[in-house]
Design brief:
Elements (H helix, E strand, L loop, with lengths): L2 H9 L7 E3 L7 H8 L6 E9 L2 E8 L3 E2 L1 H8 L4 E2 L5 H5 L16 E5 L7 E4 L6 E3 L1 E2 H7 L3 E5 L2 E2 L1
Parallel strand pairs: 2-7, 3-6, 6-10
Antiparallel strand pairs: 1-8, 2-3, 2-5, 4-11, 7-9
């Protein structure tokens, strides 16, 4: 999927005008924060994992890392990120542009508790040079496979 798919997806929520197309790369938290002139914690990074062969996404603050022990307690399995070359097949976006919008139907989305501390978030928008400026309630309202908040991050 792509930036175009994300625009079409966000149009349902009248939020397509919040997409920011950048000249610079936003593929990493550091590059996205620099390009958007914001703090790294405001970048809503979307991480892709396989849990019992099923793809899931976890959205967390840019400065949050996954705590393997907490992940295993919650999902009852080790944290296995989807291999880079397989992300598009499972999720519908290429690495660097993975976001919780316009994803494949079978992908569940979780938010880490770290997002609750941030007023304005910038998740990717389907490619490695885009982002969407949203509040947390706006982000929550756009995720069709949203399963809830979990506490599996560490600063």
């Amino acid at each position: 999927m792509s930036l175009y798919n994300v625009k079409q997806y966000l149009k349902k929520y009248q939020l397509e005008n919040r997409i920011i197309e950048l000249q610079e790369s936003s593929a990493t938290v550091a590059s996205a924060a620099l390009a958007l002139h914001t703090k790294e914690e405001n970048i809503a990074k979307t991480l892709s994992f396989l849990v019992e062969y099923k793809p899931i996404l976890i959205v967390c603050s840019g400065t949050t890392r996954i705590d393997n022990h907490k992940f295993k307690e919650f999902f009852h399995t080790k944290a296995n990120m989807i291999p880079r070359e397989e992300v598009n097949n499972y999720i519908g976006h290429e690495p660097g542009g993975v976001c919780p919008f316009a994803i494949k139907e079978n992908v569940d989305v979780y938010f880490d508790e770290s997002l609750k501390k941030i007023d304005i978030l910038y998740p990717a928008a389907g490619n490695s040079s885009s982002a969407v400026r949203l509040t947390l309630p706006e982000l929550e309202s756009t995720i069709e496979n949203f399963k809830g908040y979990i506490d599996i991050g560490k600063e």
